[in-house]
Structure formats: structure tokens, C-alpha cells
Amino acid sequence: MNSTPQSPSAAALPASEACASCAVFRAARLRKLGVRIGHADFVVALAGNPNTGKSTVFNALTGLRQHTGNWPGKTVTRAEGAFEYNGHRYKLVDLPGTYSLLSTSPDEQVARDFLLFAQPDVTVIVADATRLERNLNLVLQVLEITDRAVLCVNLMDEAERHGLQIDTRQLARDLGVPVVGTAARRGQGLAELLQAIEDVATGRVRCRPHRLPEPPPALREAIRVLVEKLERAYPGLPNARWVAMRLLAGDESILNAIRTGELAELVRSRTVRETAAQPATP
Fold first, then answer.
1. What is the DSSP code string of 71-111?
2. Count of beta carbons in the 10 Å neighbourhood of residue 122
3. What CA–CA distance (Å, rounded) separates 30 from 24?
4. CA-CA distances (angstroms) from residue 248 to 16, 223, 241?
5. Which of 28, 30, 112, 126 sits a CA distance of 20 to 30 A from 156?
6. CA–CA dist 107, 99 (Å, integer)
7. Lowest mean pLDDT segment, chosen from 3-12, 41-50, 71-80
């Protein structure tokens, strides 16, 4: 994975100040999105199509340590929970079940905005093993936004009952992110899922997500020009091509993020965070 360029202001910050600034920026963003991280070490988003067993995975990981509410300004339900693993505390945010992230519905906008602006440490994408091909549409869209993801192929017991076999190792190689097969309602694969989440959250595993191929020739030049402008305006923007495509599609929430400075804040906080994580130079 390519390293993110450092801004002069971020590089000049001492490690302790950089960490504090990162925590302040992140907490403020999450509060704006209706989520309080408390004492969590890592924030994990749970995404997926409806009817994939996502709620079962959420309940299995969080147990009784969870609560529900609505996303700010929306009638969309928000569920949050917490769990501990290997000494780390995790905040788990269950995003609305969606088929895409193109913001054509409130559910899709909530899910997309959280992934883009909250920048969770890990996004767990829950897919249905019996309908994997259909679910991969959302998987690929998520991987366009974030490079820290784990694919949870759930309902493996149902797939086996229908004579389907899922090669999770080959799928991991193809997608460039960890892939874990689970049957969450039976508790199968959850230990492996927890380990994969920790591996990505701590940086032990570096994801190299598969990105969609080049756009059609008619759009290629417009996207190239816009990406160059975005990268000049926001050095270190991790998903400039995706942002460019959404701008060309007239995505109002992305336009507002540019107008309000939210996109600039996202990039600055990411740069500060990654700078603080780098070992000090002797």
C-alpha cells in the first residue's frame, strides 16, 4: 500500500500532540455522525447487504454491550456495541443494510458517509455465501473507499447445505483483503473473524484492495483531470478517483463536504494520524 504524503503542519507536530490532535478530530467527526467512541482503541464499521446475517454477526461480537438510536437528522436506525479482544477495546457500528453506496436512499447515504468521513479502523463487510456474486457489488464499492477491510462470508453452513464451496483463500488473494468464512448463528468462524479484525486494526496485516478497472473511455479524461485537481487541493486524499466519480455524478453530499471543508479536515486528520503512528527518527 502506498504511503500517504505528510503535510508540513502534521510533520512538525510532536508525536504526543499529533496523537491528541488526531483523537480530537476523530472524536468530533464521530460525534457529528452520532457516534461516541468512549474509551475504544479502534472503531469498526459493519457493512453489508440486507439479509446476510449482519445483525447476527453484530450480536455475536457485542453480546449485551450495545444500544440503538437514530442517525442524526435521519429516521434510519443506528446500532452500536463494544467488545474486547486481546487487550484492545473495539467500538462496533452497525451500518444500515444496503445494496450500494451511491446515496440514492437515506440508508445508503448514512453508510457511505460513515465510511468516508468517520474513517473506521476496520470495515467488516458481511456477505451471504449463498449469493456471493450479487453481494460482491457492495464489497467492491466499499473497497473503493477504504483500504482497511475484512470480508466476512457468512452463512457458510447454508452454502454447504446447497452444495456450494467458497474458496476464501483465493477470494482473499483476488480482493486483497482478509476473507473469513463464518456461520455466525452457530458461532463458527467468529474467532478467526476477531483475529482478522485485530490484524487489520493494528496494522499487522496491510490490505491491498482490488479496485475497479478503468472507467469507460468517454469518462476517463474527465476523471483524470478531476483526480489531478483533487490531489493538488487535498494531498494525501486516499480515494481521489472515487470522489471524482461521485462529483461527476452530482453527489450533493460530496459537494457539501468540499464547500464546508469537511473533506479537507478528513485528509488533514488522516495525515496527522499516520504521521503520529510512524516511529520516531533517532
1. -TTSS-EEEEEEEEETTEEEEEEEPPP-S-SS-SSHHHHHH
2. 25
3. 10
4. 40, 8, 11
5. 112
6. 10
7. 3-12
- 1 near 207, Cβ under 8 Å? yes
**pTM (2 d.p.):** 0.77
More confident of the two residues 278 and 61: 61
Q: 259-274, pLDDT tens digit by residue?
A: 988 888 777 766 555 5
Beta strands 77-85 and 66-70 are: antiparallel
> Which residues does residue 88 pair with via DSSP β-bridges, in sequence order?
85
* Dist. CA 18–CA 14, nearest whole Å: 6
Asked whether 206 and 213 are in contact (CB, 8 A), the reply is no
CA torsion 86→88→91→97, rounded to 10°?
-40
Mean pLDDT of the chain: 82
Instruction: Report the candidate in 57, 123, 100, 135 with the shortest Cα–Cα distance to residue 242.
Output: 100
Which residue type is seen at 263?
L
Task: Answer for the pair 63, 83: CB distance below 8 angstroms, yes or no.
Answer: yes
Task: State residue 40's pLDDT score.
Answer: 84
Of all helices (H) and strands (E), which one includes residue 219?
A: helix 217-233
